[in-house]
Amino acid sequence: xxxxxxxxxxxxxxxxxxxxxxxxxxxxxxxxxxxxxxxxxxxxxxxxxxxxxxxxxxxxxxxxxxxxxxxxxxxxxxxxxxxxxxxxxxxxxxxxxxxxxxxxxxxxxxxxxxxxxxxxxxxxxxxxxxxxxxxxxxxxxxxxxxxxxxxxxxxxxxxxxxxxxxxxxxxxxxxxxxxxxxxxxxxxxxxxxxxxxxxxxxxxxxxxxxxxxxxxxxxxxxxxxxxxxxxxxxxxxxxxxxxxxxxxxxxxxxxxxxxxxxxxxxxxxx
Length: 270
Known about the structure:
single chain; 12 helices
């Protein structure tokens, strides 16, 4: 009996290690380096879907872009520039060897052709969120409540246009409209496994918990929606004002024409 228990424990401990050893090198690289921002055949996240990328781009171009995306963009490359304009974010440099890039592309080809593409992070369920979640997310964002693992408050690097939050830092992007730029799965993926150097330094050893991420997503989504509604309201008010000005000008023109005729007829009658 004791031997069976020992064997069971040994198997449970070694199984993950054996799976890791057996994992395809390209798949392992994709999981570690790419999966936060990309899928294979499951749609865009923070960056584009990579299914069939090797048929759309040459291996040489992909290698250059993976190693230093900013350099390719700065060179004036039209494809890189278009990607930046569409996704509004520059992919971090990846220190990969030519062999690692080859194995990564081989895995992407295999996964795409066999419909084995990775599953993106599940979308955040906004329906179940409430005011408590939003308020908790606000406190995490501004640092009123500290993250359980000691990570820095979001406000130290990011600003957000929310009346209940002080102005934030300018070291990173403004997060007011982050949900207008990325899907919830993309934002959640960044918070779960930060791909950017500054975020890795801040949260690499102090990861956010699932509850903290969900609260932040609730707060960010609420802010995004509030700003969008306010902008629509302002646009509606501007349109109404513009219509009023046009109508008043039209009335003025009619009055001017009518007055000119009345004045002309009164002169002839004399």
